[in-house]
Predict the structure.
Amino acid sequence: MSAYIDSRINRGVQVIAFNRPERKNALTVEMYETLAALLQSAEQDGQVRCAVFTGHGGLFTSGNDIQDFVTRPPQTNDHPVLQFLRGLATFPKPMIAAVEGIAVGVGVTMLLHCDLVFVSRSAKLKLPFVNLALCPEAGASVLLPERAGYPKAAELLLLGDTFSGEDAAAWGIANRISEPGMTLSDALAAAERIAAQPPAAVRATLSLIRGWRQSATLDAIAREAEAFRERLNSPEAAEAFQAFLEKRPPDFSRFT
Ligand code: COA
């Protein structure tokens, strides 16, 4: 279990928290491994009726740890990142996210799998996959256009601009805006209400309303993983990662 993920179960709610604030809660392979294992145990544990994702330090997560991605890229389908993403796509119980501060990359795409998303008014979200010479993951290529509509999805993915909690709610990525610092208590209040509902009825409802999305999402995750791998190994990505590590803007002018 990664020391950077903590988890507790209380009143039927499993809270899973990213806890690496010194790196803006960026996710490493070990953290993905732990997240995948926690989802699997939460699925099987009859005491768990609902999962809540959150982060420490007033942040959600800055997404994949870029250094880690360069040294240990997800080359195979059993890589922990893919285990976690498939776990999200198939988790049969309600998932809720409490998003404070920063949510980048997978910090946003994982929200597309959550049933309820509470986002702080002052949160800053972005999807800089193209900016890093990558492409969407976590099923975002189908889930984002579905949630936000094609024009907004294209804009968010192609420009990679930062957007606010209010924007996320307006564009169907979040359910509700919380005041800063209140997302977790708002998420827990909803989670505890759901945990008190009849669990089989909750699962049946989720299965019905998620409907066709599940297989479409799993297909998208597999397609995206292939394209993502290709992108990760590209000279464009080498320039983007080098620029990040050297804290300079990337220069893509030599690529065709
Ligand atoms: N991977 C690796 N390291 C990361 C990281 C990530 N995703 N996000 C933040 N860090 C590191 C920073 O490099 C910095 O390290 P340093 O102290 O050695 O310089 C440290 O965490 C603190 O981050 P910093 O950039 O100083 O914080 P900030 O508040 O100015 O900016 C972000 C926060 C999230 C906007 C900025 O760190 C960022 O853009 N990170 C990259 C996010 C990203 O592109 N993720 C998608 C990957 S697919």
